[in-house]
Amino acid sequence: MLSGCGTPNSTSSGTPDARPKVVSTSTILTDLAAEVGQDQIQLVGILKPGADPHIYEPVPGDIKQLEQADVIVYNGYNLEPGLIRLMESAGAKAEKLAAGEVVTPLQLAKEGRPVPDPHVWGDVKNVIQMVAAIRDALSKANPQARDRFAQNAAQLTKELEQLDTWIRQQIQTIPPEKRRLVTTHDAFQYYGRAYSMAIVGTLIGISTEEQPSAQTVQTLVQAIKTAGVPAIFAETTINPALIQTVASEANVQLAPKQLYSDSIGAPGSDGDTYIKMMVANTTAIVGALGGTVTPFKSSS
After folding, report:
1. What's the pLDDT tens digit per position in 105-145?
2. Are the C-beta atoms of residues 18 and 39 closer than 8 Å to each other?
3. How far is 252 from 243, CA to CA, in rounded Å?
């Protein structure tokens, strides 16, 4: 897989690199673009593993990358507001793909009004749609590699279909009364809907910019007690201090493994690709809620 840090602008012989430069925002999109594009694109991922796209503040180098891009792949639905604003002003010549917006979104309340939930990758079937959109965008930018992109996307889609089936099977091992999820922020609605997990509540809403009030904390504590969940979950991109407080006040376990929500894991971690991230999350959820995990094995 190509590095999210990008590739050189010239070949080893010193001639200009004719491959299209693709700039992606979130680490999840960088991983998907790398799998589909492989060595037929120059790929630069702006966010690094563990970075929170909701609150990311662009740096001057990001402007340069966007200005040089042939294709910009971003999530959309306002997941990465700082980068979207910058892209609209700096990425004038690039083809832009809002990969997340190929999915019909769930609507969640924010400040009393409905807004699209940007965390579309929680449902693997949504990601299959996103892969097709990335394939088409790369094919338009580099028509000579169209067949390669199609082949890579087909292989990735096959593995995603296997992942989707595997997740459903694992969740079914959790006792029905324990298929309830409590996380730090509202990033798992698509996962819950797709895989029959009830979302009991979250500490903060869609965006990690929000700060929970004391009343919000107490409301969540009461919801946890009422639901009788055995464990709740922290997330890798958010300080766990507040959710630890909630767990203590609700007298439930804080699951030992944090969930990957808005970013894949660091290289070498158990969540350093989208597929591994989803496997790691499901393994953590099933284990903490009383199910039994069968290891994921791809036939690819």
Report:
1. 999 877 788 999 999 999 999 999 999 999 999 999 999 99
2. no
3. 11
Helix H or strand E segment including 183: strand 180-185
Between helix 81-90 and helix 60-68 the angle, nearest 10°, is 50
DSSP assignment of 30-69: HHHHHHHHGGGSEEEESSPTT--TTT----HHHHHHHHH-
Q: CB-based contacts of 25: which residues, under 8 Å, 6+ apart?
A: 45, 46, 47, 53, 72, 73, 74, 75, 79, 80, 83
Instruction: Give CA 251 to chain center in angstroms.
Output: 30
Residue 212 structure tokens: 């929970």
pLDDT at 224 over 70: yes
Listed as own residue / partner, the contacts of 56-64 with beta carbons closer than 8 Å and 24 or more positions apart are 56/80, 56/82, 56/83, 57/82, 58/82, 58/83, 58/86, 62/86, 62/90, 63/90
Phi and psi for 126 in degrees, rounded to 5? -65, -40
Half-sphere exposure of 155 (CA within 13 A, CB side): 13
User: At 164, is the secondary structure helix, strand, or coil?
Assistant: helix
Distance CA 194, CA 129 (A): 15
Say if CB 105 and CB 118 are below 8 A apart: yes
- Please tell me what DSSP assigns to residue 263: S
Residue type, 253: Q
Give the global pTM.
0.91
Q: Express each pLDDT in 153-191 by its tens digit.
A: 999 999 999 999 999 999 999 999 999 999 988 899 999
Rounded-to-integer distance, Cα 131 and Cα 136, Å? 9
CA 198-199-203 angle, to 5 degrees, is 165
